[in-house]
Amino acid sequence: MKKILALFLALGALLVPGAAAQEVKASDAFLLVAKPTLNNSSFRRTVILSVPIEGDRHIGIILNRPSKRMLAELFPEHEPSKQVTEPVFFGGPMSQRAIFALVRRTENPGRGALRIMDGLFLAMTANTVDHIIEQAPQQARFYVGDVIWRPGELKDELGDGYWHVMDVDPELLFRKDTQALWDELSRLARALRADAGHPVAPRRSPG
Fold first, then answer.
1. Could you say which residues of the chain have pLDDT below 70?
2. 188: buried, middle or exposed (CB in 10 Å: 19+, 13-18, 0-12)?
3. CATH of region 2-196
4. What are the extents of the domains in the chain?
């Protein structure tokens, strides 16, 4: 079963070229909060953790769309999956046959993990995600699918006013109830804009 699981997870790395060797600085990760401009799209009311990867691209996972499926349901013969007590989240419309893990660790959890900030990594390759499931399931949240922006695509979306850009707050990433997350961050983004008279920051726009 472990080999079957590894093959399944490996699809994620194949769909994100260069991920295995990529490591980003803590300041490069950011949150995207969908604006009403996206209300008629599949990204309506989403909050996305986005990270730059090589080739002027970005990868992201949707933080506020839990599914009704448990990891143990996806892998009923894999005993360690039964230790995961919360549902798998829908990470995005791409790489639909791949599983990713957002994990709290002081050390890099393995090959292909992107450093979000100190103590926080996004694991994207088969062996690393498999290891997290077996060794640290309660320190992680698991996602099926992701979001990938082509070179310059996210910069264009920001220019078109699709997203609020906010700093990463690790406490938000593992919130048990994510139902109100979009409302909360949207109100905060609007308040900051009104108070400061400039885009949510202080931070530069990605890209």
1. 1-27, 194-207
2. middle
3. 3.40.1740.10
4. 2-196
